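Page 47, continued from p. 46.
Same chain as before, 116 aa.
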Amino acid sequence: LLGYRITDAPNFGILEDLIHRIRHHKNEIYPRIVVIANALDQEPLRKITTQDGINFCSAFDLTYHETSVKTGHQVKLSVSTLISLMNSKSDDRKSSSSPKKKFSFARKTMRIFSEK
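Result:
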């Protein structure tokens, strides 16, 4: 999960370097990454457009969501997407971990966000 504030251009600017580092460290060509553009509640101060975020994520084959943690806008969707990607990644590797453990983590995480 990588995030940036839509009001912070320098923060958005370092995403590419972070993605390259993650991919190099994980020794995978396409690790599953979700990019969160946060602070939609500050739309008048926006410096990174929605289209900039979409184009960036398309170029790196990443999942993109825009949220506002302050208002809760699309936070559950973003977390659900990340959990689904994590679970499918685990399935891809034919993990020996118990499905109960995997889904327990997902339930706990969703419970945290549903309380908001």
